[in-house]
Amino acid sequence: MASVAVDSLIMKLARLLNEEVTLLRDVRTKVEGVRDELCLIQAYLKDADAKADTADTSSHAVKVWVNQLRRASFRIEDAVDFYIIKLAPHPSQRRGMLCKFCLVITSVVPRHRITSEIVNVTASIRKLYEDKQALGLSPSSEQNVAERIRYDLRMGSHFIRDDELVGVDYAKNLLIDWLIHGEARRTIISVVGEGGLGKTAIVRNLYNKHKEDFDCYAWITVSHSFKEEHLQTIMQTLYENDGKKYPVEGIREKEVDKCNLTQKLRDYLQGKSYMIVFDDVWEINFWECMEFALPADTNIRSRIIITTRDRGIAEFCQRSAPVHIHELKPLPADDALKLFLLKTFQFDHHGCPQDLNDLSQRFVKRCKGVPLAIVVISGLLSTKKKTVSEWQKVYDSLRSKFSTDPHLRSFYLVLLESYHDLPYHLRLCLLYFGLFPQDYSVKCSTLIRLWVAEGFVNENEMFGDQTLEEAAEDYLAELIRRSLVKVSNVFVNGKVKSCRVHDLMHDFIVRKCEELNFCQVVSKQQFGFHEWTRRISIQNIDKSAFIGNDQSFVRVRSCLSCGIEELSESVVKSLFSGFNLLVTLGLEDFPLDHLPEVVGNLLNLKYLSLRKTKIKTIPKSIGKLQKLQTLNLRDTQVLELPMEINKLVKLRHLLSYSFGSKEHWQHLLGFRLNGGIGGLTDLQSLAMVDTSTANGDGIIREMENMINMKKLGIVELSEVNGSSVCNAIKNMPNLCSLSIKAAENCGFLVLQAIVDPPANLQRLYLNGPLQRLPEWIPKLKHLIKLRLIGSRLAEDPLPKLEGLPELLELHLDHYCESEEVHFKCGWFEKLKELTLQRMNTLRTLKIDKGALPKLEVLRLGSCPQIIEGADAIQNLEALKNLYLIDMPIQFKDDIALNIPYNIDMPIQYSNDIALNNPKDIDMPRQFANDISTPLKENTTLDISPPLLPPPQLTPPRLPPRRGQLKVKVLQDLASAAIRSLSAA
User: Fold this and answer.
1) Are 748 and 768 in contact (CB under 8 A)?
2) What CA–CA distances, in Å, run from 4 to 38, 313, 430, 510, 840?
3) CA distance linking residue 821 with residue 840, whole number of Å
4) The Disease resistance R13L4/SHOC-2-like LRR domain covers which part of the protein (predicted)?
């Protein structure tokens, strides 16, 4: 699609003309000229893209035209980038007339070459502009494109039988309850979900069965744009369903304006109960058109049903009507398989052959529970021979046939419809998922930093003081809201932690990426890539794939690695020296033990991630990367950064820390600096700085200049530097996350000097002894997570902390020397996770009824003296997961006797010890290595070391109690505890 390349280039040229780089006069003139030419042709691109996507023979010439325009855009971008790197004078170079004169003389030939290239490409663009009429292209809007490529899949949805609606009983019953048994007033029911989930089919089924329960009813297929004509369509449908003839003659002239149509519809519906379905709504302003046309009579049961892929549309309606939102989910595995077999073997009385069971499961898994995907693939398989070899061919060729096979194309067009509905910057963001492997969950923070580095964020559309990262977060939220991106994992506060796209969407994205030369996957099966490819993703290859390869990487802008076994020294050097225009380089888990000096030649680089590599040092040439925004050295062996790091004045995120020999907070290692960092005023993330060096206090003082800081991590802090840290924090009004670890045997963490803490602080991690709890901590009204590790307070601070209004996670590790911990009624009303660990003096745990009312996860570990408190667990009404790590046998025995059981879940004996995010900074290894993976629903009790031989007895069923908790007892349960359980 040419619009993606051209729109991106126009934004880049506009940014270039406004940036600090001074373009020589002739180059600036040419750049302005090509920008103007591109703007002229821009209005025709959406129409061209739509015709190219129809994939019929008549659009072949349009496809060629689109491809030529895309390559012309790439040539312009390459020419401009080469100029910026090689010729554009840097601000530090513009000193004196002599320097300017030398610059002009030495750049004569290169300037001539770049201007000639731009002139040639501009002529090509002008010729393409002239050819638009011969191709029948015309200016068009986004909605016209969407209308043209829209494939009418909803016809079949209107006639689906009940037995074909598999796995939707819960959704149907819920919708019927809202539809029939809800309150007597105008109510909106919205069914939300990605394309292909069966929204139309379910709602149509309910509409056909229950429309006669209302005085008036109508079904309106909206598609993309809601216009005044839809008001007249509603009127006509209501008349026809009411057995009346709609008086068309003489009315349309009177009702040409929206106001008259609205009034006429209100008058017709006044005093009547009605059910009106608006199927396939795309625009949020839809409700603005209908809000006043549909009366809200009191004591009259009226229902407005909306099907949409965008949750934001349903939420927008809440401003003037009660709204019920049901987010339709993919089918569970069993129901998905049932639907697959029903459709594939509907005319085969013998059913699925035994040898096709495995492939059937694989096809179903590929569909990720999306009914339309299951139906179209089943339709394709129903036409094939029922043999393993034939089905395997279909499975292997799904991606290549996705847009062309008549069976699969219907689902392809559903995805294409959603894609075309996106503004171009969101298309770029969605296409970026093509750089990651199928079913890969990418961390949102990583994705956002990549988008910012790539320049996907349109600064003209940012609000107020919004940062680029915050704008990119909004982009991701919109893709999730539009049901295009799936949430994989969330933080305790519900914020998205990682995300992915489902398999068939990934197939669609990869195919689009190949068509657009947006990116290509480099693997064992296919190492070569197209000469115009802008991004490459290296997945699952070894060093043999590079041997004898002479392809140029000169046009590549991004390179991400997702699995390489081994590389030679020469290959590593050639990779770093060949990417002249590289913008992002992600080499996580890359077989790299050192970073070559030639990395300094990547002058265009904005993002560099070497996480989980084996590198030990960073070369001084890193200082040449003047555009670098992100440097991620997490989980590497780098313990020191060169002085040249202070030259990276555009750096926004500097992350370098590991966990030494043990992945636990006590073994957290940061990085040392040889020079100051006071000039890095754009920094938003800095973790973890080792301040134990001779210049540690000076480094801390320079942090006072970092007013944009949001995440700060300091390790090895001495007592004498505590006041300096407090002064620095005072100048960080946007700080959201603060982590401080004290140096061993260096006294206390002295943090009392903060009077007005950052108002937005959400995460606070303090690791080290405290004389007393800093008075500013209870003032943190937005604090979500608090960790006190090794505080060793003489007095229990819980009475001062219980009033934190937003606290969701509390981690207390050797935080006080008290013999009793008492949670009183009303304390910590929102807390969801609580950890009590290494409490050597703790003997009694008390939890009053009404305390911790929303606690879902409780971890108790290494409390050798505890003798009372097992019965207090019963007061935790919302508890779902209970972990006991290295706790006394008697306490575990008491827990086993006092915990409520679920009669449907007998005790199971297992030694299934699982690792749970061992390298995640938020999950200490002391927990991660010892706990077993909890069950997903209800509550799991995991009791770990020491391991004992498995008991040779059948676990008894225990009597039901509260019916909320499931129990999973590991093999370490002592024989005494087993006897107690049996007796119970």
Assistant:
1) yes
2) 12, 26, 12, 15, 61
3) 12
4) 574-881
As to burial, measured by CB atoms within 10 angstroms (0-12 exposed, 13-18 middle, 19+ buried), residue 319 is exposed
Q: How far apart are CA 965 and CA 967, in angstroms?
A: 6
| Residue 710 banded pLDDT, cuts 50, 70, 90 | very high
Beta strand ranges found along 27-101 (DSSP E): none
Q: Nearest 5°: phi and psi at 523?
A: -140, 180
SS3 at position 23:
coil
Q: Which residues contact 32 (CB under 8 A, 6 or more apart)?
A: 17
Q: Which residues contact 794 (CB under 8 A, 6 or more apart)?
A: 816, 817
Phi, psi of 57 (to 5 degrees): -65, -30
Torsion, Cα of 950, 955, 960, 961 (10° steps): -20
pLDDT at 758: 93
Please give the C-alpha separations between residue 218 and each of 212, 240, 269, 276, 300, in angstroms, as whole numbers.
11, 9, 12, 5, 17
Eight-state DSSP code of residue 399: H
Residues facing 499 on adjacent strands: 442, 487
User: How many Å separate Cα 823 from the centre of its chain?
Assistant: 36
Peptide bond into 888 cis (omega under 30): no
Distance of alpha carbon 22 from alpha carbon 85, whole angstroms: 12
- Buried (b) or exposed (e) across 621-651, using 16+ Cβ within 10 A? bbbbbebbbbbbbbbbebbebbebbbbbeeb
The H-or-E segment that residue 489 falls in is: strand 486-490
3-state DSSP helix/strand/coil percent for the chain, to nearest 5?
A: 40, 15, 45
- Cβ 741 vs Cβ 768: under 8 Å: yes
Is residue 811 within a helix (H) or strand (E), and if so which, with residue range?
Answer: strand 809-813
Specify whether the backbone of 223 is left (phi greater than 0), alpha (psi in -120 to 50) or beta. left
Tens of pLDDT, residue by residue over 478-527, are 999 998 999 999 999 889 999 999 888 999 999 888 888 898 887 765 55
pTM: 0.84
Q: How far apart are CA 557 and CA 581, in angstroms?
A: 6
Contact 456, 429 (CB under 8 A): yes
Structure tokens at 851: 């305390």
Q: How far apart are CA 935 and CA 53, in angstroms?
A: 46
Collapse the DSSP code of 400 into the 3-class scheme (helix H, G, I; strand E, B; otherwise coil) and give the result: helix
Among 6-15, 126-135, 205-214, 926-935, name the most confident range.
205-214
Per-residue pLDDT band for 411 (boundaries 50, 70, 90) equals confident
Phi and psi based region of residue 414 (left: phi greater than 0; alpha: psi -120 to 50; beta: remaining): alpha
Tokens 């408190």 sit at which residue?
869
Mean pLDDT in residue range 13-33: 72
Beta strands in 838-962 (DSSP E): 844-847, 857-861, 881-885, 909-910, 940-943
Q: Name the β-bridge partners of 307.
A: 191
Express each pLDDT in 63-91 by its tens digit. Answer: 888 888 888 888 888 888 887 777 654 44
Contact present, 302 and 186 (Cβ < 8 Å): yes
Q: Which residue has the tokens 């170079």?
A: 93
Q: What is the CA angle 229-230-234, rounded to 5?
A: 120
Closest to 651 measured CA to CA, from 641, 666, 659, 661 = 641
Instruction: Categorise residue 928: left if φ over 0, alpha if ψ from -120 to 50, beta otherwise.
Output: alpha
Q: Three-class SS of residue 557?
A: coil
Q: What pLDDT shows up at residue 654?
A: 97
Residue 336, judged by CB atoms within 10 A of its CB (0-12, 13-18, 19+), counts as: buried
SS3 798: helix
Q: Is 592 exposed, middle or buried (0-12, 13-18, 19+ CB in 10 A)?
A: buried
- What are 433's two structure tokens? 């998922």
472 DSSP assignment: H
User: Alpha-carbon distance 257 to 228, whole Å?
Assistant: 8
